[in-house]
Amino acid sequence: MSEDNFNLSMRKFLKSVGVTSQQKIEEAVRAIESGSDLTSINLTVTLTCDEVDLHHEVKGTVELP
After folding, report:
1. What is the pLDDT along the chain (65 residues), one digit of tens a residue?
2. Alpha-carbon gap, residue 60 to 43, rounded angstroms
3. Closest CA to 21 of 56, 58, 65, 54
4. Which residues have C-beta within 8 Å of that of residue 40, sequence separation ≥ 6?
5. How far is CA 14 from the centre of its chain?
6. In the 3-class helix/strand/coil scheme, how is 8-52 assigned residue by residue?
């Protein structure tokens, strides 16, 4: 695989992760939003790949409207 194909494939994957993750978070927040006193939520994203022995976590907080 060429470097260009690798970069395009990586960007396509990461875009899919970002878009679908945002949709799932928004759905979950809408489901609990009415009557909730939450002002923020703590999130953890775990990225794994057995083929290259990758395990990476990203943690963060998202403020709610």
Report:
1. 789 999 999 999 999 999 999 999 999 998 886 778 899 999 999 999 999 999 999 999 999 98
2. 5
3. 58
4. 61, 62, 63, 64
5. 9
6. HHHHHHHHHHHHHHHHHHHHHHHHHHCCCCCCEEEEEEEEEEHHH
Coil vs helix vs strand at 5? helix
Determine how many CB atoms are found less than 10 A away from the CB of residue 29. Answer: 15
Give the Cα separation of 4 and 23 in Å (integer).
29
Position 35 scores a pLDDT of 73
Q: Which residues are CB-contacts of 62 (< 8 A; sequence separation ≥ 6)?
A: 25, 40, 41, 43
This prediction's pTM: 0.82
> Could you tell me the two tokens for 47?
């990225």
